Structure formats: structure tokens, C-alpha cells
Amino acid sequence: QVQLVESGGGWVQAGGSLRLSCLGLGRTFSNYALGWFRQATGKEREFVAQSSWSGGSTNYSDSVKGRFTISRDNAKNTVYLQMNKLKPEDTAVYYCNTASVTYRFAWGQGTQVTVSS
User: Fold this and answer.
1) 76-114 b/e with 16+ CB inside 10 Å = b?
2) Average pLDDT of the residues in 92-102
């Protein structure tokens, strides 16, 4: 099992940037496609971005395409989410996990991102 530890969230004004990190503890997750997800208050968790195991293929939700970039460093067992041009509607708790719908690690505690207008 892998323990997921997200960090890098915070408060930022609209138009600003943040870089999130997700560290996998316990064992390597370098052979998994990984994704970022988010959950706003009162809403269901939603997909944000995903990366193939090598990082060579990525995919984004329409709401973040062109503003967010997912990347990974398998040597550090870490996946990143660079978020630019942030909007108030990006406010949520952000989580990482596998991109698979059939296999997920236990969810971490996430990292809060708050974007003010």
C-alpha cells in the first residue's frame, strides 16, 4: 500500500499560481498512471488531470485545460500539479491517487486551495 501525502495548497488571489505536490510513501508508485482530483464544499470529488506512468501522456478536464500542468518525478515518487491563472471556482481540496477507476490507494488528507476574487 502507498500512503499519499499532498502539500502545496494555500490561499491565492485570482490569476495567481500554486504548485501542488503529492509524495507516495511506503512503496513506489512509478508504474501507475496517476491523477489529481478535487472536491469543493458540497460537491462530489472530480477528476482534474492525469499522467501516464512515464509522464509522456497527460489528460486534463476541460475546466483546467491550458491552465494546469501535471508532471511527475518517479525517482522522487512524487507527482506535481502546476496551477496557473487560478479562478475562484478552482477552490477545493485537491487529492492525488491512481488514475485507474478499478484500483485506488487509500485517499490522503488532501491539500486545500482557496482562490479569492
Assistant:
1) ebbbbbebeebeeebbbbbbbbbbeeeeebeebebbebe
2) 95
